[in-house]
Amino acid sequence: MANNKGLGRGIEALFADNDVEEGQEEVIDLSLAKLSPNPFQPRTHFDTQALKDLTLSIKKSGVFQPIIVRKQSGNEDSYEILAGERRFRASRMANKKTIPAIIRDASDEQMMEIAVLENLQREDLNPIEEAEAYNTLMTKLDITQAEVSKRLGKSRPYIANYLRLLGLPTEVKDMLTKNQLSMGQARTLLSVKDKQNLIKLAKRAYNETLTVRQLSKAIDELTAKPKKKRKPRRSTKQSPFLRAYEDELQDKFGTNVNIASSRSKKGSGKLEINYTSDEDLNRILQILDINLD
């Protein structure tokens, strides 16, 4: 079982055993040719324009913040990048020969955690990369969702919701990776059990730029039992303000929301928030900051 160093405390917490006082670490220039990326890097896509911008900055001003590396096992003259792969890539694009670096000791476990933490702090992982990162931590380190939650400082429902995305068809996961679908749309699609219908609805959501509410309605229509008259979800006279509020709540909760005005008492009504599973309910309660533990 992996140790319990808290990833949520930051990258520095993972090097507590190195016993190096702040400001006393040696920064050296390492040849780019001797460096290789972190083998546990969860990010598979690097924004091209962002890399170009960083490349121009490095050409003009150099690299201000050293990358962190460790010596490669079995090869004392080669190094693996623990943190700073974007700076490494941009430096190569800028035709630099060396890059400032700090050498530290790190286990495979620490490298894996650092790779996930660095990207989560930057918030530039796409949803599938983030989900796969959590899954890798659980698999490689043999830890539970609850332990991942504690290490990363994320709620357990948050971790669970991302892991559920890995059950989507490959075609839909690719759409999510390319930002053709939002996280809210993907969570809504999880309620569709038939694979072909799910893919069809995902493509429709993208092609018709459906909101989460519209997609949820399309799913209801597709899965509705034939010859069964459905009760209208809201009055046809619903005010445009209530419709706008529905859309806002729909985006916030990532599920179907219905606001129905009372016919008997002005200014009253009911608010319905749909959920598809116990995990989905826990996710909504987490958003509402309701915790019964």
Automatic annotation (TrEMBL):
Superkingdom assignment: Bacteria
Keyword Cell inner membrane assigned: no
Family assignment from sequence similarity: Belongs to the ParB family.
Domain ParB-like N-terminal as annotated: residue spans: 28-120
Keyword match Metal-binding: no
PANTHER family, A to Z: CHROMOSOME-PARTITIONING PROTEIN PARB-RELATED (PTHR33375)
Name of the featured protein: ParB/RepB/Spo0J family partition protein
Keywords attached to this entry: Chromosome partition, DNA-binding
